[in-house]
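Thread title: Can someone regenerate the structure for this chain?

I was given the following input by a collaborator and told the matching structure tokens would be attached. They weren't. Posting the sequence so someone can regenerate them.
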Amino acid sequence: MTSQIIPVDPFDFIIFGGTGDLSERKLLPALYHRQRDHQFSEPTRIIGASRTKMDDKEFRAFAKKAISDHVKPEYIEEAELKTFLDRLSYVTVDAKSGDGFAELKKSVGDSKRIRVFYLAVAPSLFGDISDHLKAHKLVTADSRIVVEKPIGRDLESAKALNDIIGDDFGEHQIFRIDHYLGKETVQNLMALRFANALYEPLWNSAHIDHVQITVAETVGLEDRVTYYDKAGALRDMVQNHILQLLCLVAMEAPASMDANAVRDEKLKVLNALKRVNGNEAPKQTVRGQYRAGASAGGPVKGYIEELGADSTTETFVAIKAEIANWRWAGVPFYLRTGKRLASRVSEIVIEFKPIPHSIFGESAGPIFNNQLVIRLQPDEGVKQFIMIKDPGPGGMRLRQIPLDMSFAQSFDGRAPDAYERLIMDVVRGNQTLFMRRDEVEAAWKWIDPIQHAWEGSRQEAQGYTAGTWGPSASIALIERDGRTWHESN
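Best answer:
Regenerated them for you:
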């Protein structure tokens, strides 16, 4: 996508978990792309930090392989890669004991540059690292700390973790990252709603029948066995990604794009969500767990077989949610996410209400509701489904077609990865696309009663065959309301 690249002020970017999976797959490639687009000013430095013992040369070799493996060959330029690798250094640290933090302080030095501490580590280490940074006087006025989800596993633990980090960093320095919010299509949802006169007058219960939000994966456990079995789909995906998308769909127009103006409106949506209590959970939620089936053209094991142990953890969740405010009263939001589903797709579907009366008669065929489909991945884009006359003689026959805007076709060049955008926002100190403390805790206040209801009623995870769209109960959840899941190919 063509846009003016504005260099940022020099900064130090310290990656805790610098030799881990997230650093390898996402952070180092994202930082390389920003180097390639000349967004760094001198003397920007990138410092890897983890328990793995290695020196600067070995870390540079690790980073070079990461870029070779995760950046398309046409974007690897030897001169830019060398400049990027020359920025890298490495310090061995132990988050628990604090060993190595004195060496890290020496490596960072007394520079007045912006400092970004990115915690690409297990959440159990967040508090330890934060405390060690403060104890070794590494936290300056221009420091930021970035923490990945999950922020806790329930409201109580989220508050405790926020308290620990909040004692070491100011709220304006804490960046709780959700990479979904860095996707171009997610941000285009804001542009679609608030930069066009077409949609906002219709964006309410008078015109919208219902909303669907789907985040479907075809993968299974992969390398997240230990974490995922303790979390499950509700905590892993709904509490953060899906509720953030719901907020962007449902929020009122903020006064500006100022970070707090946007987050204030998102918080209002979270607080307006109707709680799902123990009696309602069986009717409004579905838990599922995949069984053996087929995916990507081949046979795959079930969750229990992959895990190697019995488990009641859900790999699929569907929820009928409602927002108790004037704009959305009576409009259901159907949410679903799962692993080993039929296809990999993340999308938001806005289905408008039917026309009040058809003038065309039965011979014209059925008239389908207008839909606005916002595709987050893959093939980012926006489709508006409308009814038109089928061309040709023989009377008035109607058909539904999409007005299709594919980002890949509409914009030239490479679309930056979500992490690229979010990392640069951290450096600039722009928190608009990051979660505020009260947002995180409000989300847990809605999630916890569902989790407690499942545990209290022993609501089992229903089996579904890998490669399908989840348990049959999820189909019943929406079809008992006379609606159908939108299933993209």
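The longest strand covers residues 208-216.
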